Amino acid sequence: MLPDQRFIIHVDMDAFYASVEQRDRPELRGLPLIVGGLGPRGVVSTCSYEARRFGVHSAMPTAQARRLCPDGVYLRPDHARYEEVSERVFEVFHEVTPLVEGLSLDEAFLDVTGSLRLLGSIETIGRRIKDAIWERTQLHASVGMGPNKLLAKLASELSKPNGFHRIEAERAAQELAPLPVGRLWTVGKVTEQALHRLGIRTMGELAASDTARLASALGRQVAALQALARGEDDRRVEPAQAEQSIGAEHTYDVDITELALAEAWLLRHCERIAARARQRGLQGRTVTVKLREPPFVTHTRQAQLRAPSASAIDLYELARGLLNAWWKSQQRPRLRLLGVSLSGFAAERQQDLFDSSAERRVTDQVQDSINSRFGSGSLVRGGVLKTRQQD
Ligand SMILES: [Mg+2]
User: Could you tell me if 266 and 350 lie in one domain?
Assistant: First the structure.
């Protein structure tokens, strides 16, 4: 092994949200399933492979998906459940290397260079990850392997779904040559069109083009682009930093004009954030409320708790004060978006049952255990029910 040679794995769950739903609700298997926002401004988060045949894809407005696939099944995302599955998946990653860079709930880069001596070849490790994910979640992951991030990611994309593929450095140029230039992650629509105007459609054509000629049309970064088209990429896998903040927010189809409803949503957000903080063993001190007036004017208000906490009621009390102060300062308060986040984390305190907040923590714990048995949202505080009519 050369001293600077890296062994990188890219793992991406297949149609993640939709696959979790089809796993848990067998009646949805084999059907075109679209998970996303269902209101007039909703966007598709994920769709099943059956729905993709109709031309539906993620990030498409749900209204457009409904026109393409009127008989599809449309569901709102259940983030708490996807997060639970995500934790199982990331446990698998951390069993093979500490160098895990999560890109989303269901996608990560792993640098396994230091694991090869102990665990075997990159394919052995890749296979182990894929099998362990299947055993623990009954979901398929696509696994791509390569000497850098670019090739590992292309390898998983090219072999999806249920993929398993390695692109070795020596074969990179050959495998990449026929692929469209748009597949390079730095090439957006504008660059793609500029390349097309120059008659360059594939990575092979890009790699073989004269740099000086390209530079006059596209600028000097074009040499870096050509390096990518040859499969060269020296970005490192950056392991996750400690989480900076945990937040929840919602954009409303109908603007909120009633304070009681805004407060109910605030409580619901606080419960979600507090549960996620407790799952991760975190307590935060800074509460930030995000308020967006239509169409796009966003305000934030921030305050500190007296002591770090992961209690929904502690967060809510502070957040509600911030919301109320803003509300009173407005002539005609209207909210298009309302969000809350918790930051300023410290490690969790030892339980102190004589602490005045002990009772609150017990309520939170009961809620966590009921939600984990019966599904998130089974037990919510009364105030949150008000938000259910809208969601
Ligand atoms: Mg995915």
Answer: yes
